Structures are given as C-alpha cells and as structure tokens.
Amino acid sequence: MEQDLVVNEVFGPTVQGEGRSMGRRCAFLRLGGCNLSCSWCDTPYTWDWVGAADGGIAHDPRKELHRRPVGDVVEELLAFDTELIVISGGEPLGQQERLIPLVAALTERGKEIEIETNGTHAAHPELVAAGVRFNVSPKLSHSGDPLRRRIVPAALTSLSALPGSTFKFVCQNTRDLDEVAQLVTDFDLPSVWIMPIGRTADDVTKHMGELADAVVERGWNLTTRLHTLLWGEKRGV
Ligand code: SF4
Known about the structure:
Layout: E1 5-15, E2 25-31, H1 61-64, E3 66-68, H2 70-78, E4 84-88, H3 96-108, E5 112-117, H4 125-129, E6 133-136, H5 147-150, H6 153-160, E7 166-171, H7 174-187, E8 192-196, H8 201-217, E9 221-222, H9 226-231
Helix pairs in contact: 2-3
The structure holds iron/sulfur cluster.
Iron/sulfur cluster is lined by residues 34, 36-38, 41, 43, 89-91, 118, 139.
C-alpha cells in the first residue's frame, strides 16, 4: 500500500533558482524533515522545531507538515503544466521509498524530475532507473553539522557515479573552495557548481562577487540564487 508523503509545500509555476537548470520554468514539491541542521539553512521551517537555526526561531510541525496521498500531490503538480518538477526539502531522500510511485506517475506523463539532496543518502535504484537527476549539495564545515553526519562516504561515492548528478556547494569565501576541492578529489565528484551563501539579494551578490574569479580559475561552474535575487525570503515562489 502506498504511504502518504510528508509535504511542506507544493507550488508553481516558478523557476528553478539554482544550479544547472537555473531559470527553467518548473513546479516545486518541498518535503518535510531533514537529517542535518545547518546553521544557515534557508528552509528551517521544514525541520527546525526547536530553534537550532534561523536565529533561534522554533517552527511548528503542525503548521508546516502535511501528510498527503501521493495521488493528490501528483495531480497538484501536473496542474502547473511545467516540463520540469523539482523535489526539494528539507531532505527529500529521507522519504525516497514513498517518492517511487510519485516519480513513476510523473515520468509516465513525460515530466523531467530533479531531486535536491544533501548527499547523505544513496539514491534508491528505482529513482535512478526512472531517470531522476540528482542535484547533490554536500555541506561544508561552516554548516555547523559534524563531519560524520554531513559527509557519508558511501552515499557520495554512489551519487557521484550516477550519470545525471551535479554537486553544488554553498560557499562563503575562497577558503571554502579548498574544502570543496578536497571533497572533489576524495569522491571523484563530477559537475561542480559553487553557490554563494546568502538569504538576501545583497548577501548573494556580495559573496558571488568574492567567489567568481576563483571558481572560474578552478574550472568549476558558478550559480546564483535566482529566487533570492527575485523574491528574497518569500515562500511559495
Ligand atoms: S541539509 Fe538542507 S534542508 Fe537540511 S538543514 Fe542543511 S540546508 Fe537545511
């Protein structure tokens, strides 16, 4: 029997704000829950019920989490009429077995699917077989998460071997790039994208300017946070 998904929000049409598909029209499914607790998390309302991040604000799971049947979520996503559907969180692979029927229903209707993940879970083979592309965002030390929680070698190794994976790192300054380089070497990571930290347009632009030359010099890709530039911290866009 299919299990319900734990959903935070479903919204669209909008544009993918980050990474290789930045600017593409899409719909978003944001799932609840995360196994990490990054100090600068931009979606703490999906997991932070005690105020560990977000300036100590505790969010309310009764308001933020909704158990929803897969079929209802599929219908809502299809109604946005986008080619691309982005599944994000929180950490969506924490519910990946429950995502299998959703992905099957959406790919049957010709949808492209990207899953944003923190890279601590290996992808389920059925999601891989369905053609899902994984946008993997391993966390660096400035996240405040302990190394053993944020870097799971077996998961990173298996995600890096998938043909559609990209690796996106939130960076503050050029020192963070050395940490990225070590992970790229250790796990043979392909398709590296660097994204500036920031929850306001000013912060994103400032950090992007500080990082740009060094990112190009290292042979990597640079992405902004288009949604932050356009809409700041407004939710559901
Ligand atoms: S992994 Fe992502 S959702 Fe989870 S705490 Fe870190 S930034 Fe937030």
